[in-house]
Amino acid sequence: MTRIASYNIRKSVGLDYRRDPARVLSVLSTIDPDVVALQEVDRRFGSRASSIPRALLNENTDLEIVELATRPESIGWHGNALLVRRNTAVTKVRNLTLPGLEPRGAVIADLALPHTMLRVVGVHLSLLRLNRRAQVAFIADTLASLQAMPTLIMGDFNEWSPTGRNLTALSEQFEMHTPGFSFPTLRPVVGLDKIALSRDLTMDNGGVHRCIAAKRASDHMPIWAEISAA
Questions:
Q1: Residue 130: which residues within 8 A CB-CB, separation 6 or more?
Q2: What is the pLDDT of residues 172-182, one digit of tens each?
Q3: What is the mean pLDDT of the chain?
Q4: How many CB atoms lie within 10 A of CB 85?
Q5: Angle at 220 between CA 81 and CA 104, to 5 degrees
Q6: Confidence of residue 45 (pLDDT cuts 50, 70, 90)
Q7: From 16, 42, 74, 85, which residue has the greatest number of CB atoms within 10 Å?
Q8: What is the spatial distance between Cα 85 and Cα 183, in angstroms, rounded to a whole number?
Q9: Gap between the Cα atoms of 25 and 9, Å rounded
Q10: What is the DSSP letter of 60?
């Protein structure tokens, strides 16, 4: 069983408008995941520096960064970052530039876990409906072109519709899960944060993580799940 999590951390700026990466890391430590997808991890302008210092991550968690960044002060790609439990073998990484009017990307890492290979895709999709639909189709086509392996996609899908009509390009190969209402933090009313699992994976447990720190650390609550081979 693999414990996964996804968290839009809003550049580590909480509801009190303080940038506090230590608070974000305390939330992650409470979840204790094997694999994490972060969104809005890097600052938007300039050098795109990470809002979470590498040293702070190393000192306060059992997680390490999947090396995806193309800028020296960043830890991600278009704000998306992947973290894995320390000493997890990462066999291949890919950065995707997604279609649309606003700059968006996705990140892919192939992991060699103790009992299986696992492909992890981290996403933060567009606010615009038509762009979001095109981005989902692009991701689905990209994954279809790769060597098949158990695959999960997780992140902030920005999909408000409970039926997920803009995500149908994934429906043939993936089962979509919304663990619960995760946005906005003060009064969650929508599940923008989602997990898609290929048919050879199953979701055994999952939910929205609601510890005290998570209620202040970002405008999103983190989601988590325990997955295993189907």
A1: none
A2: 899 999 999 99
A3: 94
A4: 18
A5: 45
A6: low
A7: 42
A8: 26
A9: 10
A10: H
Pair 109, 93: CB distance under 8 Å: yes
> What's the average model confidence in pLDDT over 133-152?
96
Pairing of strands 63-65, 81-85: antiparallel
State pLDDT tens for residues 186-209. 999 999 999 999 999 999 999 999
Mind listing the domains of the chain with CATH numbers?
Answer: 2-224 (3.60.10.10)
At 92 the pLDDT is 97
**Neighbouring C-beta atoms of residue 127, cutoff 10 Å:** 12
Closest Cα partner for 150 from 89, 197, 107? 197
CA distance 156 to 100: 16
**Of 52, 129, 133, 120, nearest in space to 85 by CA:** 120
Which token pair is 70?
């193309």
Q: Reduced to 3 states, what is the DSSP secondary structure of residue 184?
A: coil
Q: Amino acid letter at 132? A: R
Cis peptide before 72 (omega within 30 of 0): no
